[in-house]
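User: I'll paste a sequence; please echo it back and then give the predicted structure.

Assistant: Echoing your sequence first, then the prediction.
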Amino acid sequence: MWQLLAAAALFALASALRTGHAPALPRFEPDIWRAIAFLVVLSSFGGYGFYIACLRQRGVTYTAVMFYLTPPCAMLWAALQFGDGVDTAGWIGGGLAALGVMLALRVVGQRREDAGPGASADAAAG
C-alpha cells in the first residue's frame, strides 16, 4: 500500500509540475469506475492473492519459475483481447519460456521426490 501511495504522490506531483494544475479524477461515469474497480480487484486481489497462495502451496522455487510465463501469457492476452499480432519471434520466445518452465518444474519435482514425503522443494534445494 505504501509503495502505491508513494508512486501515486510522485505521479501527481509530476503531473502538477508539467501541467500547472492538480491532476483531475476520472469522470463520474459508471463504465469508467467499473473498469477501474475491475483492474484493482483483478490485479490486487487476484494477482497478489494467487501469488501468496502459490507461495504457501508450492514454495518459493516453484512460484519464481512460474513468473517466466508472464510475458507469453501477456502476449497471448493482448492478441485475444485487443487483436494484437504475434510475430514469429513472439511465438519462439513464448515457446522457449514454456519449455524452460517445464524443465525447471521437472527439476523441482525431482528434488521434492528425492527429499521424501512432506519436504518442500525449497528445503530440498538448500
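The chain has a mean pLDDT of 86. The two ends are 32 Å apart (CA to CA).
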